[in-house]
Amino acid sequence: MISDCLFKRNDTYYFRLRIPQDIHPYFSRKEIWKSLSTKNYSSAKTSISKLLYHTERLFLHVS
Asked: Quick count: other Cβ atoms within 10 Å of Cβ 6?
């Protein structure tokens, strides 16, 4: 799952996650994009793990 959310653009890693269809009405967009502000793959993976944890909790709370 981590590799599905990790993208690299211009040497910087980004977090990207689709918002589940059933909770779209609670959000103003269909995806979450966030710069991880790192060029280091290991740091990006650590940040992604934390972001996935928090977004999953948010999605559960909203639904």
From this structure: 18
CA 6 to each of CA 50, 52, 53, 61: distance values in angstroms, whole numbers, following the listed order: 12, 11, 14, 24
Cα distance between residue 15 and residue 42, in whole Å: 14
How many other C-beta atoms can be found within 10 angstroms of the C-beta atom of residue 44?
A: 22
Across-strand partners of 18?
A: 31
Extract the tokens encoding 37. Answer: 């502000």
Model pLDDT for residues 4-55, shown as the tens digit of each residue: 899 999 999 999 999 999 999 999 999 999 999 999 999 999 999 999 999 9
Question: In residues, how long is the chain?
Answer: 63
Instruction: Compute CA 13 distance to the chain's CA centroid, rounded to the nearest angstrom.
Output: 11
